[in-house]
Amino acid sequence: MKGGDGSLGWDTWAPYERIIITAAGPNIPESCLQQLAPGGIIVMPVGTKEKQVLQVLSLTPEGKWISQTADPVKFVPLIGEQGW
Fold first, then answer.
1. Is residue 78 in some structural domain?
2. Residue 42: how many CB atoms within 10 A of its CB?
3. What confidence tens digit (pLDDT) does each residue in 42-76 have?
4. What is the pLDDT of residues 70-83, one digit of tens each?
5. pLDDT by residue (tens digit) across 1-42?
6. DSSP letter string over 4-71?
7. Does 37 fall in a domain?
8. Domain total in the chain
9. Structural domain span for residue 66
10. Domain annotation covers residue 83
């Protein structure tokens, strides 16, 4: 178990093949993007505090980012250095 600023991810065990962030932010934190392995996927609710969409980012083995958005959602805000 780890306590701390969740907006910074957890670089101790990085890189990760999958990252799911279950709090909303204005964007996906850079620290979490850096912790994703090539071929990995990160999912996070992104938008305003009142309205978000699920953003799905994939990092290809070649290092290219592919972005998709899914359904509208409403999550609690991500608090921390790279959140709100």
1. no
2. 22
3. 999 999 999 999 999 999 999 999 999 999 999 99
4. 999 999 999 999 99
5. 678 888 899 999 999 999 999 999 999 999 999 999 999 999
6. S-GGG--GGG--EEEEE--SBBSS--HHHHHTEEEEEEEEEEEE-SS-EEEEEEEE-TTS-EEEEEEE
7. yes
8. 1
9. 6-73
10. no
